[in-house]
């Protein structure tokens, strides 16, 4: 949609002694809002993004280094967390960091009548009974992260997950097309 995030990846570089990890790279994720300073919501999203990235980055190949991922929100028209996840994966891929798998973010909005909307707008998210965001790995469509806002039944969550896993195929195809365009020049 109209949500856009700019991603910059720095590293692997020398880590500060206080942040250095002896067995793997230290991954730091910074989420910058469109205006103002980062707040509690940004810190919470940073933690979700960092944990998701750590699950796929092969940091053991770069011990005692630091990798910094900076995500700058350019516009937020809904589904911001999934847009951040997709931007993070593309940045990791473009930087050539070794990854165990690719991942993508998919947001589902569960409407009051029970219908599932993929990639909802900000207004659709506000009107929804529940909003669920999933990070899905390319290998076997495993769930790396799930974040929910609102309430839904277990069956509805499973329906949203199934819809997100089907939508992930489209996003992974977009990744392939983007990489092919970039490196076929």
From TrEMBL:
GO cellular component term, pick one: cytoplasmic exosome (RNase complex)
InterPro entries: ExoRNase_PH_dom1, ExoRNase_PH_dom2, ExoRNase_PH_dom2_sf, PNPase/RNase_PH_dom_sf, Ribosomal_Su5_D2-typ_SF, RNase_PH
Pfam families with a match to the protein in the record: RNase_PH (PF01138), RNase_PH_C (PF03725)
Top-rank taxon: Eukaryota
GO terms for MF: DNA binding; RNA binding
Cross-referenced CDD domains: RNase_PH_RRP46
Annotated localization: Cytoplasm; Nucleus, Nucleolus
GO BP: nuclear mRNA surveillance; poly(A)-dependent snoRNA 3'-end processing; rRNA catabolic process; rRNA processing; U4 snRNA 3'-end processing
Domain Exoribonuclease phosphorolytic: 1-98, 102-166
Keywords assigned by UniProt, alphabetized: Cytoplasm, DNA-binding, Exosome, Nucleus, Phosphoprotein, rRNA processing
Keyword Oxidoreductase: no
Similarity remark: Belongs to the RNase PH family.
Subunit structure: Homodimer. Component of the RNA exosome core complex (Exo-9), composed of EXOSC1, EXOSC2, EXOSC3, EXOSC4, EXOSC5, EXOSC6, EXOSC7, EXOSC8 and EXOSC9; within the complex interacts with EXOSC3, EXOSC8, and EXOSC9. The catalytically inactive RNA exosome core complex (Exo-9) associates with the catalytic subunit EXOSC10/RRP6. Exo-9 may associate with DIS3 to form the nucleolar exosome complex, or DIS3L to form the cytoplasmic exosome complex.
Identification of the protein by name: Exosome complex component RRP46
């Amino acid at each position: 949609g109209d949500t856009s995030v700019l991603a910059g990846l720095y590293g692997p570089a020398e880590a500060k002694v206080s942040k250095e990890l002896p067995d793997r790279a230290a991954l730091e994720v910074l989420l910058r809002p469109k205006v103002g300073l980062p707040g509690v919501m940004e810190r919470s999203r940073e933690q979700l993004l960092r944990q998701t990235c750590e699950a796929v980055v092969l940091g053991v190949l770069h011990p005692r280094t630091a990798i910094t991922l900076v995500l700058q929100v350019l516009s937020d028209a809904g589904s911001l967390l999934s847009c951040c996840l997709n931007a993070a994966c593309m940045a990791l891929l473009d930087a050539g960091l070794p990854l165990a798998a690719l991942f993508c973010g998919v947001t589902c909005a569960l409407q009051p009548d029970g219908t599932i909307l993929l990639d909802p707008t900000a207004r659709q998210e506000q009107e929804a009974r529940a909003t669920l965001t999933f990070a899905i790995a390319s290998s076997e469509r495993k769930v790396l992260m799930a974040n929910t806002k609102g309430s839904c039944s277990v069956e509805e969550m499973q329906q949203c997950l199934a819809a997100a896993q089907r939508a992930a195929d489209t996003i992974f195809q977009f990744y392939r097309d983007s990489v092919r365009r970039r490196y076929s020049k």
